[in-house]
Amino acid sequence: MRGARNQTRQARSRMRSSAVAHDEALTLSGVCDIVAHCARRAGLQDVRPHVLRHTFGKQALDAGEDLVTVATLMGHARLDTTAIYTQPNQRDLERAVEKLSSES
Fold first, then answer.
1. pTM as predicted
2. Buried b / exposed e across 3-31, counting CB within 10 Å, b at 16+?
């Protein structure tokens, strides 16, 4: 995990110095390239900026943050947009079944 953080810091540094050196804004494809590069170096596949955004929203809600706070953090104008992140994923369902099994 620490290695991935260092790589992310290095990527941010390269991103800032590249944008400043060329006096250009970072493009969406540039962000996608940086995320893909960091993901590959961390041994992850199919990681895109939206996946990171979705993960952030889901983990914030799972950690107990309220819907309004998460909506604000994510820049959502409508709570129903943020409510998408409250939908259980496969792992959530598996945990629920395990919890029920252990209580019996």
1. 0.62
2. eeeebeeebeeeeeeeeeeeeeeeeeeee
